[in-house]
Design brief:
Length: 128
């Protein structure tokens, strides 16, 4: 007879608790969807931040927005006539002066400019 039959065996019993069920899908009214899509289409809006602030997955809001645009029910807001964007070439040189070109505005900055002040200047230039 096989000798392994008579050996002592140890068993471990694992117990588990059932996981909480997934949250129930939330049904959004057409008005809520329209409001969120309009907010997401506003110039400078952050779709992911808007979605998360309302407890919504960003991909869902992107899908709603895409569907609304495709249907022609809404259109993105524009700030009037769109200005053409002009690009410029630049060469790196070994000086402390930096030139930043935004549209038709040139900002010349020395190496000793406070970063917070530079941020304020660039925000003001973007509003032009």
């Amino acid at each position: 007879m096989n000798d392994s039959v008579n050996h002592h065996r140890t068993f471990e019993v694992l117990t588990a608790e059932p996981l909480k069920s997934r949250r129930k899908p939330r049904h959004w009214s057409d008005e809520d969807k329209a409001r969120l899509v309009a907010e997401a289409l506003a110039p400078g809006s952050n779709v992911s931040a808007i979605a998360r602030s309302h407890g919504l997955d960003p991909s869902q809001l992107y899908a709603w927005r895409r569907k609304a645009l495709a249907s022609g029910a809404v259109s993105p807001l524009t700030g009037g006539q769109v200005k053409p964007v002009r690009f410029t070439r630049f060469e790196a040189v070994g000086t402390e002066m930096v030139e930043i070109v935004v549209s038709d505005v040139v900002v010349r900055i020395g190496g000793d400019v406070d970063p917070d002040r530079l941020v304020k200047i660039m925000r003001a230039v973007r509003k032009v």
